Inverse folding.
């Protein structure tokens, strides 16, 4: 039998493993591991095997290894991980798509009973219906102010009951009731808390953004930048077309009010002097266009002909 490594040797081996992973991977998911069992963790490791590696450990050891690695390699980007190593957390090193890996991690959630003293992660509501319990348990429901009735020799809950609110501690009575009813209200698994990608750290909510969301946010930002540029008269690529059009409008207004003129203003002045020319031009364009005024007149004449034919039919006497 081989000699078991001591604590010092385990720390050295852990340090080498973590440093090697930081050399090979540039993408890391920081995950919370509260209430995650060993069997559940093994299933997660199997599900991620191939492109991702899950590494758990003490926060102090991880922080020390990251600092040592940064000093040796000069890559200080990994130092951004240190403030995130708080509580029961682990690291998932991956070369795959971050969103897909995050979705894969979320699949491995396991239902759990409400144990006394736990902080409820969600609201717990007991649905109405037959509990299957005998009438001797009625007093138990009365303690929790749950309305019941006896139906066919068993206790039946009448209405929905909000038993535990999110953020509240689970009491002994609530835990006992849920256990009797066979309700496992909570589910636990690895929860992605933060994402590290090539030195940048951001919220996992960013992974849910689609291309349409990015285009919408970019358009909104571009619109705000354009408005600001126009307001302070600072030329930018997005504001330049608007500035040129506004400048043309101002120059045209001055030309119309004064004797000064330029090529683009001459036509406008001509129309202002004789608006009938503009009307004639519009009429000519409408007549030349397919389905113009002439066609419309022809279409209008067709119903008139139909009416005449109808009138002719009605002109006959009933006795002819």
């Amino acid at each position: 039998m081989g000699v078991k490594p001591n604590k010092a040797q385990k720390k050295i081996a852990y340090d080498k493993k973590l440093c090697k992973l930081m050399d090979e991977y540039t993408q890391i998911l920081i995950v919370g591991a509260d209430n995650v069992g060993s069997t559940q963790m093994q299933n997660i490791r199997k599900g991620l095997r191939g492109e991702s590696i899950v590494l758990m450990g003490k926060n102090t050891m991880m922080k020390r290894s990251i600092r040592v690695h940064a000093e040796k390699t000069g890559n200080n980007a990994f130092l951004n991980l240190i403030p995130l190593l708080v509580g029961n957390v682990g690291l998932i090193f991956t070369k795959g798509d971050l969103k897909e890996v995050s979705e894969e991690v979320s699949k491995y959630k396991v239902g759990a009973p409400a144990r006394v003293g736990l902080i409820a992660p969600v609201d717990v509501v007991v649905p109405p219906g037959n509990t299957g319990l005998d009438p001797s348990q009625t007093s138990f429901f009365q303690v929790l102010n749950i309305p019941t009735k006896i139906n066919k020799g068993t206790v039946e809950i009448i209405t929905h009951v909000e038993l535990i609110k999110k953020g509240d501690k689970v009491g002994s009575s609530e835990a006992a009731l849920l256990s009797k009813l066979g309700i496992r209200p909570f589910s636990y698994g690895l929860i992605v808390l933060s994402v590290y990608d090539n030195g940048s750290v951001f919220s996992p909510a960013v992974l849910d953004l689609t291309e349409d969301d990015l285009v919408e946010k970019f358009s909104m930002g571009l619109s705000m930048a354009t408005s600001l540029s126009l307001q302070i008269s600072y030329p930018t690529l997005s504001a330049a077309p608007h500035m040129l059009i506004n400048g043309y409008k101002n120059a045209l207004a001055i030309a119309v009010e004064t004797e000064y003129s330029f090529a683009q203003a001459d036509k406008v002045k001509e129309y202002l002097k004789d608006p009938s020319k503009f009307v004639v031009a519009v009429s000519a364009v409408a007549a030349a266009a397919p389905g113009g005024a002439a066609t419309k007149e022809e279409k209008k004449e067709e119903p008139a002909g139909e009416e005449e034919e109808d009138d002719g039919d009605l002109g006959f006497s009933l006795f002819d």
In short: DSSP finds eleven helices and twelve strands in the chain. The chain has three domains: 8-109+189-208, 114-186, 213-291. The two ends are 125 Å apart (CA to CA). Residues 304-320 have pLDDT under 50 and may be disordered.
